Amino acid sequence: MFFLIIILYVIVIFFESKSLFKEKNTGKFLLYSSLIILSMIINILLSLGVTLPSPSNLIKNIVISVFGNTN
Amino acid sequence: MKNEVISERQGIILVTLFLIGSSFLLGSGGQAKQDAWISVIIAISEAVLLFLMYSRILSLYPGKDLFDIIQILMGKYIGNTIIILIIWFAFHLGALVLRNISEFTNVLVLPDTPVILPMIFFTILLIWVIKLGIEVLARWSEFFIWIVFMILIAVTLLSIPLMDKSNLKPILNVGISPVLRGSLSSFMFPFGESVVFMMVFSNIAKVKNYKKTFLLALLMGGGFILIVTIRNILVLGSDAVSRAYFPSTMVISLIHLGNLLQRLESTIIVEFAICIFVKISTCIFAVCNGLSKLFGFDDYKFIATPVALLMLSFSLFIFDSTMEMKSWASDIYPYYTLIFAVIIPLVIYIMAEIRHRNLKATSRN
Question: Cys-Cys with B79: which of B74, B128, B247, B248 at CB 3.0–4.6 Å?
Fold first, then answer.
């Protein structure tokens, strides 16, 4: 499964970074590649069955500490 | 979004579809039980004030969106921190809405298909529309809003024989406090979420009148949400509404007119897909716009693919189950949105107003 994801990502990166290379804007390329590599890592971890920490629990704790118990 | 131009009418339609969005399916103001329609009315009247504030902020700085205004008002360091928080809010909102539609497909539409499959195609469409720009989305929605209107009116008219007006009674029998709590949740979901539009509307063509755009859209979207809420309560009763995850589909599935008109749920799926599409793509527009403003680029389209894919993967692990989604949306979500939809814009509004007065005073001297 994760081979499939890697192949798909390589295809997407290949087609999208072509135009970015032509522009020769390093900042854009860095932002693009960091974002897409982050999403690739998350998707590979998900396909391997890793349970990632959900942000909703963190937000829940923050909201409860600010507003008190909300139910 | 410098050279992109949408007309006022298209702006109204975009905000209307955004407001109808997922609240059409999930219902609004559920804590108030049979008095949910009162809380929706209270929420609409609160939202008028909120939208007046938004349009005032936007019209003080014509041609600029929320990110520019924050950078002008708060400087580099504090401004960028707040921009990062707001980008996170838009991103999280998009992931939540994507999660809503994936739960909906998983529970009701395609129960045996792995949920990632329809979502991948949905995400490809989202990436496509963002690459094309907001003008295309606006023109697209100008056509599709008629489908939404027709379906909504037809389905509501067809469900009139099922209505029972005793479901609305007793009115206010447990006091005002659940109504107010329901009005808070209805105020934040969907009306408060439209703070996302402040990050997108940098350039409505030839229009200084943000007020008209926001208020007309509120009138249409809020009116439809009110109609849907009252219809759901009248047909199902408050108990069934609070028990069902997707009350609107339950209402539609009850419609039987002979052998001819049955199983109209597919209409609601079409409608939901249209509204959700507008909602998520607006969120992605906001995120891309904010990220490109934060790092100082002039173009936002080049990060469309990574942002949409990240949103998709976030939507997969953000909740464990439908039950968690429902409880989070009703208990935590209104308070979380309150920070981004009311408190931060209020601070910006006060700062902008003070700065505007100072500028006027100095120019007079």
Answer: B74
Tell me the mean pLDDT per 10 residues along chain B, length 365.
Answer: 79 91 78 86 93 90 87 91 94 92 88 90 94 91 92 90 88 87 87 89 68 91 91 89 85 85 85 92 93 89 92 90 84 89 93 92 82
Instruction: Give the tens place of pLDDT for each residue, A20-29.
Output: 888 888 888 8
Query: Can you give the pLDDT at residue B245?
Result: 82
Partner-chain contact A70 B335, CB within 8 Å: yes
Give the count of beta carbons closer than 10 Å to the beta carbon of residue B146.
10
Residue A56: what pLDDT?
87
Name the token pair of A22.
Answer: 């032509």
Pick the CATH number of B8-364 from 1.20.1740.10, 2.40.30.10, 3.65.10.10, 3.100.10.20: 1.20.1740.10
Angle at alpha carbon of residue B197, lines to B135 and B227, rounded to 5°: 100
- Interface touch A32/B313, C-beta < 8 Å: no
Q: Is the dihedral of CA B316, B318, B321, B322 positive or negative?
A: negative
Q: What one-character DSSP code corresponds to residue B107?
A: I
Provide the shortest C-alpha distance from residue A3 to chain B (in Å).
16
How many residues comprise chain A?
Answer: 71
**Beta-bridge mates of residue B261:** B257
Q: Are A33 and A14 contacting, i.e. CB atoms less than 8 angstroms apart?
A: no
Please classify residue A67 by burial: count the beta carbons closer than 10 Å to its beta carbon, then call 0-12 exposed, 13-18 middle and 19+ buried.
middle
The per-residue pLDDT for B83 is 94
Contacts of A21 in chain B (CB under 8 A): none
